[in-house]
Amino acid sequence: xxxxxxxxxxxxxxxxxxxxxxxxxxxxxxxxxxxxxxxxxxxxxxxxxxxxxxxxxxxxxxxxxxxxxxxxxxxxxxxxxxxxxxxxxxxxxxxxxxxxxxxxxxxxxxxxxxxxxxxxxxxxxxxxxxxxxxxxxxxxxxxxxxxxxxxxxxxxxxxxxxxxxxxxxxxxxxxxxxxxxxxxxxxxxx
Amino acid sequence: xxxxxxxxxxxxxxxxxxxxxxxxxxxxxxxxxxxxxxxxxxxxxxxxxxxxxxxxxxxxxxxxxxxxxxxxxxxxxxxxxxxxxxxxxxxxxxxxxxxxxxxxxxxxxxxxxxxxxxxxxxxxxxxxxxxxxxxxxxxxxxxxxxxxxxxxxxxxxxxxxxxxxxxxxxxxxxxxxxxxxxxxxxxxxx
Lengths: 190, 190
Known about the structure:
Chain A is α/β, with parallel strands linked by helices. Chain A has helices at 15-28, 43-47, 51-64, 83-94, 109-117, 147-155, 175-189; strands at residues 2-6, 32-34, 68-72, 99-103, 122-123, 130-131, 160-162. Chains A, B: This is Nucleoside 2-deoxyribosyltransferase.
């Protein structure tokens, strides 16, 4: 079983070390981790003149080659997960394969958005409902992120694992990641 | 031709008015706009006990029923587009149908991220390369958003239209949206 390892981990200064650690966890559970930066042959990517398009097509080919996806949904420069990761999650869901997510952050989406907006958040007339300074509503379903993310993961048969870890460890702690891998590996055996 | 109208427009206080305005533009170009909040029958959604899951499944059914998608990529509570919109973009790309995006913001992704990080951004040794306070790199391809978004749109045959509009009008100005619809409608006729 090949698992695509989606996440903003690619932006880390030690991306190669995180990739190796994630792959080692996958191997320990009898599955193969595929990191976005892994080398891959793809004719369309070879033909693409622009670097960003090559990377896009490599990632798309990696995802298509995998049986499942595990996304690092730890909030990234705002209340939501990294945009590239979310794109890949939607892509894999549409392929009909299991998608899992984990986040090293315990607060739910509404509370993170409130913290992000600070003074700019305004209460609505309805109890416990909020909007931003421009009147745009804050989703309030007690979910990990925008409902399309939680919904897509659950609809695929996947799970979302969250962990409260010290902020300094949120890009390196892999215990929630390992729980996703263990769930996928054990589902395959049943 | 049915076009799914993805975007954080659903959170606007006047979401119904924006939906009507977008559908009117679609009709003028001879295509049908499908708004996420439009009513739809879906057996799985009917069976789902939770409200958020019903909404997820309705949106997924809407997307599957459409021939193309136009996403409002105007930055939403951070440097990137709304996470739900990005999920839907990846989903439609995986279905192999055209996806277009527009944004009422002219700055590119790197510059928006630099503005978002402010003092927390640090220059790297390489010229014109930046990282955040935790060392995570800032994508620097001159794109509209994370490369998966731009790449997915271009790989699908779509386009990204950006417009510098006054900030107060960024949720209501539909000229970039109309340019996407016109491009889709005219491609269908050729």
